Structure prediction request, 153 residues.
Amino acid sequence: MAQAVANVARRINSTVEEQRDSLGAEITSSLICIKLIKSDSRYTDYVISTYQWFSRLAVEVDLQGNVLTTLPEAVANMQHLISIDLSRNKLRVFPERLTDVSSLQHISVEGNQITELPMEKLCLMPALKSLDVRSNPLTPEAASFPHHFTLLT
Prediction:
């Protein structure tokens, strides 16, 4: 594990020194945060797949403002993901694969182009505490389904 953490640090330093799109990873005892800024979806897919071994830990992923149109495949496989921020991307459809991540507590898709929500599936997520869908052109019935989590519209 220590070697893997050292490798992450080297990759982050290399990214910053070469003035490429910003990548940050904060590692604490049980939480790993991955943040990508101003990257394209190919870079995002690469970075997320690089951190697949993080899937055994609790993970917070911040992919806001990356012009994503779909969820990177690897994110849905992170079975201990607790928080994901997909704000200010180009999502037209809510990434339903997230509803399969039972540990997910917080989802933000604020500022996208989503019109429908899979409320039945979202209501089956046992750990979900909050869903931020502000600034999306949701249909009036999109959020009318009874739910157990905080829904920010």
